[in-house]
Amino acid sequence: MRDSADNGPPEIVIDFGQNVAGILNINFAGSQNKTDGLPGLRLAFSETLEFLTNRSDFTRSDNARGEDKLTNGTDQIAVQNEPYTWRDLLGCQFEQQKVCSDGLHGFRYVKLWLEGLPSDAPYISSTGSIAISSVRLEWSAFLGTPESFTGWFECSNEELTQWWYDGVYTVDLGTDVFLANETEPRDARSPSLEGKQVLFDGAKRDRDPYVGDLAVASLTSYLSHDFAESTRNVLEDLALHQRADGWIPPASINNYSLPLFDYPLWWVVCSVDFTMYSGNTSYVEAYWPAILKVIDEYYPKYMEKDTGLLVKSAEMGYGDYAFLPRSGPVTYYNALYVHTLRYTSTLAAVLGRTDDAHRWASRAETLSKAVRKHNFDSRVKAFYDGGSCPNDKAGTYCDVHAQDGNSLAIISGIADKNTSTQILDYWHKAAARPYGNAFYDSSVLSPDDQFADRVYAFISYFELQARLMTPGASNSAFDEISRLYGWMSSHDPKITMWEGIGPNGSAYQGAFTSMAHGWSTGIVPLLSNHVLGVVPTKPGFKRWRICPVLEFGDVSWAKGEVPTPHGALGVSWAKRGHEQVTFNITVPHGTSGVLCLPEIGLRNRNVTVNGAPVAPDTFTQSRFGIEEEIPGVSLGEGAYSVMMGVA
Length: 647
Ligand SMILES: *[C@@H]1O[C@H](CO)[C@@H](O)[C@H](O)[C@H]1NC(C)=O
Ligand SMILES: *[C@@H]1O[C@H](CO)[C@@H](O)[C@H](O)[C@H]1NC(C)=O
Ligand SMILES: *[C@@H]1O[C@H](CO)[C@@H](O)[C@H](O)[C@H]1NC(C)=O
Ligand SMILES: *[C@@H]1O[C@H](CO)[C@@H](O)[C@H](O)[C@H]1NC(C)=O
Ligand SMILES: *[C@@H]1O[C@H](CO)[C@@H](O)[C@H](O)[C@H]1NC(C)=O
Ligand SMILES: *[C@@H]1O[C@H](CO)[C@@H](O)[C@H](O)[C@H]1NC(C)=O
Ligand SMILES: *[C@@H]1O[C@H](CO)[C@@H](O)[C@H](O)[C@H]1NC(C)=O
Ligand SMILES: *[C@@H]1O[C@H](CO)[C@@H](O)[C@H](O)[C@H]1NC(C)=O
Ligand SMILES: *[C@@H]1O[C@H](CO)[C@@H](O)[C@H](O)[C@H]1NC(C)=O
Prior knowledge:
Bound molecules: 2-acetamido-2-deoxy-beta-D-glucopyranose
Structural class: alpha+beta
Helix content: 25-40%
Radius of gyration: 26 Å
């Protein structure tokens, strides 16, 4: 690089080809300065070209105050005259906070230009020349290699297959060691997390593990590399910071005090998921008292006597996953509580804790009735969001409906099949956008933020799951996935999945938006759990269910493996029109389960297992506590070829 008087300082832009996370290294071949002060180089990082400017799209100092604030948006180097390797560590080259950099970055592009900050005088000069021999990255995150994949997925639709791997890559980028100098500076540093593997929310920010995010990101982690340790470290650490009233903090930020109302429930859901996937029942036994405090002490305090509904009052000042300006008998909080009660009740039954199982199942039933009675808007045929409109002191339901409450109402069994179909039809009509389904059907709550044009892949996961669970709705899931993941995968930085999408498919919070956010990787569990169809029904896949959705857009075959503590559970299915479906299943030692034989309009439903005709059984499966009848065959350890239809 040479100095030039013509068109501003000389600059180069390096494109790493995809989003990455780590510590940038620059091998300098030397530098020359004509006056006092070493030649200065400034660096701006960005996940997208759109926000690649003369300051980083986001850098740690943006959230820092006082002594923690080292930069004003760019990293600085005073390049030495002799060849050496510079590493982008957090800190300053000289005393009194001169020539500083913010350290680790999540980025795709980095711009370097010859300039010294006036405030870095006398150490730095804006004239001279700098020679760079090479640039490399010290990769910081989980490195996914062919050997590290203990689970995989492939299907006849190449885009879906690609998105499965893109989702895994997104979570890999956020799987890293927690270090005080690489996390969010707003009081997120934590001695009890220091040095441990965790699952961060995003690669670029906040680089703090949030438990709601894990409701999706951990599933991606279990299903791809079977890496449960990062999740367990986070769950255990948050449990150790449980408040006396039962509330569990969402993350270490603000010294474990960020007030979110929904995240303690997600902590419970994630604890059950962890137990189901990892089979580590010692974890859940150790933290059962924490679960009891959340479910039986914290939330019941906020249940209103008259209606029986869970109510968040505005005075509490609590937010949720999207810091939404709503309070009252919000459907989402109620439905998430029902979901938690039912899911945890299933685990309690398996663990022989029958009293807890019954108490929670019965509370879920009562609360479900209350939600149906009070919160359903029979005019549009969907649940109200549940809060009142801004400035409405009367406290009547605002005429607004949300994706979160409606999706969770379906998943938790509050809505029956017919109601679920009506809700999903309404939601498609009201909220479909070219880049996914919006999370509100109106922007009345927050006109400036245009909620009716905002899409969260995170909360869309639950809507998509609802579509895949509701008979007749699976093709609508394919349509929504094609819009949502099709949009992100075709827009910069591609491959990685975004924290949120705003009007016109934009990054919803501009440059600040994290473009690699693990909570948006629902595509991985959706494909593995619903299209491959594998779900654990007892801890550690001791028992499981294989219920693939066979009507899913143009998908005519799917295959893959799901890692279990007993070995991989392999599934391959292929359909031939309305004639035949075949399944090859490999069941690991010490496990057993049911292969569902779904109704997909086959001409005949003759079934053979390894060539021998069998009569399918009917199984009663409990899914989140809802009993349902499924025709299927029972399978234990071994390899099977199952055929349904015409030979
Ligand atoms: C370049 O700057 C360094 C550090 O300030 C100084 O020691 C050196 O003398 C300068 N070189 C020239 C040629 O001025
Ligand atoms: C970036 O450029 C803008 C406009 O050219 C200027 O106002 C601003 O001060 C620059 N910021 C930095 C960090 O150099
Ligand atoms: C940021 O810029 C302001 C205004 O130029 C300056 O006062 C301050 O010292 C700078 N801070 C850092 C950390 O560089
Ligand atoms: C943070 O500190 C650790 C040592 O505790 C060090 O290995 C690492 O490189 C530092 N990271 C940055 C970005 O400075
Ligand atoms: C964080 O909170 C704990 C418990 O309230 C307290 O002991 C500790 O000093 C706080 N840490 C900081 C950095 O404020
Ligand atoms: C299971 O969880 C317990 C309690 O959290 C932990 O001490 C143990 O190391 C875990 N076991 C494995 C195999 O990860
Ligand atoms: C559900 O809808 C079907 C078809 O419209 C109807 O026949 C059935 O009675 C409905 N069931 C309930 C419980 O409303
Ligand atoms: C979205 O596009 C419309 C039409 O092109 C435009 O008027 C509007 O300003 C855009 N909004 C944003 C946030 O980009
Ligand atoms: C099942 O395995 C057989 C034998 O390897 C193979 O011919 C068939 O294509 C497989 N079917 C599926 C659906 O994978």
